[in-house]
Q: What sequence folds into this?
């Protein structure tokens, strides 16, 4: 049939065209595959990195083009944290990861064709507290975040022996990795008593007797902690019990590592106006409540400069993450403690006008421990100086502080019941 022959001819032509197209596509695919290997076989690429650290805690952030599989382990003598990766290209400027704080040196690069490594030489024993592997919503790819924190040599040696962990298994938020030793728990209400200053940082110097603030705060701290430890259900410890220097981040970290439920820092201020006297209780705030609070925070925050501690000046977004500004709930508890102290002092201890004030004190920047800083008086005022050096007055103030802590704690205990 003529119609059938024509249709058959068209079918053959169509088949031939399809075969030609298919062959052409296969050739193109082979050429493409030869020129561009499979993405899975290509090295990861680190497109950006940044570091923020003080001498107690640090954070490293790496931006990858794809999801990384990172394994972390520890090496001693010297103390190092090692992050092993698949083949990775580090297209970073040399200034991207300048060592600071906990990180004495930061190195990275290829080990062989299949592996790369980041090596963190630590300025002191440190442990990885948390990591996060998550999608980077800002520009695609993935972000690897590693948080480290100071520890003691015994704990670090245990981490060296424990092996590593795989960060890729934890990609849904910040989580602890290696089994960490939990803060010691006795079931008691734990209070960190922080005697301000110490060591090379003398603090203020009294007018007539020339006694340094660090000696006054240590005497108060020891008496306060001893009195607290006599109370049922309460356990207190000192951040420093000798004349030694502690940076502000160290004080905060020590309190958290020991499982503190409260942090109380003791100080004695100095002003250019010798007529001002009385105690002040400070809590943390982003904006100072007044110029006196702002100046007090500035003076206390300079403690790290005196001790030679380098303060990281990384981009604001990194610092905000690192410092973990106090959560609303913690801040509310801090204010409650401050109010309890002011109420206990009223009529018993001289207070300045508006005795509860707030400012950006670095030593109060704990995200989960309610914290206050108490200026017991002014060493620039001779009346306050005399009282601050009087053991009887010290005992009286300690007793009032203990009562304030008990008043603060009472509704918390009742709530549990």
A:
């Amino acid at each position: 049939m003529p119609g059938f022959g024509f249709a058959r001819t068209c079918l053959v032509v169509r088949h031939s065209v399809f075969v030609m197209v298919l062959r052409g596509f296969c050739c193109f695919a082979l050429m493409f595959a030869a020129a561009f290997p499979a993405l899975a076989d290509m090295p990861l690429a680190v497109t950006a990195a940044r570091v923020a650290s003080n001498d107690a805690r640090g954070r490293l952030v790496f931006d990858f083009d794809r999801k990384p599989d990172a394994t972390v382990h520890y090496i001693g003598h010297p103390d190092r944290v090692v992050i092993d990766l698949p083949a990775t290209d580090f297209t970073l400027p040399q200034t991207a990861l300048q060592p600071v704080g906990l990180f004495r040196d930061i190195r990275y690069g290829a080990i062989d064709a299949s592996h790369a490594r980041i090596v963190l030489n630590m300025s002191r024993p440190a442990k990885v507290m948390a990591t996060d592997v998550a999608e980077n919503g800002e520009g695609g790819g993935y972000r690897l975040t590693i948080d480290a924190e100071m520890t003691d040599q015994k704990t670090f040696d245990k981490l060296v022996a424990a092996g590593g962990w795989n960060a890729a298994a934890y990609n849904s938020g910040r989580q602890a990795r290696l089994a960490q030793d939990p803060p010691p728990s006795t079931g008691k209400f734990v209070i960190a008593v922080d005697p301000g200053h110490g060591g090379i940082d003398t603090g203020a110097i009294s007018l007539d007797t020339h006694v340094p603030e660090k000696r006054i705060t240590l005497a108060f701290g020891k008496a306060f902690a001893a009195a607290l430890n006599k109370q049922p259900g309460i356990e207190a410890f000192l951040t420093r019990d000798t004349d030694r220097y502690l940076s502000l981040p160290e004080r905060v970290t020590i309190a958290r590592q020991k499982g503190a439920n409260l942090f109380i820092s003791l100080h004695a201020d100095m002003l250019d106006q010798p007529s001002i006297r009385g105690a002040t209780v400070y809590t943390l705030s982003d904006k100072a409540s007044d110029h006196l609070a702002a100046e007090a925070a500035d003076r206390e925050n300079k403690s790290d400069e005196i001790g030679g501690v380098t303060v990281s000046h990384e981009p604001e977004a990194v610092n905000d993450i690192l410092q973990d500004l106090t959560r609303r709930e913690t801040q509310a508890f801090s204010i409650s403690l401050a109010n309890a102290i002011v109420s206990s002092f009223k009529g018993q201890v001289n207070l300045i006008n508006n005795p509860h004030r707030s400012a950006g004190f670095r030593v109060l920047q704990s995200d989960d421990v309610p914290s206050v800083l108490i200026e017991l008086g002014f060493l620039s005022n001779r009346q306050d100086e005399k009282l601050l050096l009087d053991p009887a007055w010290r005992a009286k103030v300690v007793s009032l502080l203990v009562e304030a802590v008990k008043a603060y704690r009472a509704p918390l205990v009742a709530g549990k019941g």
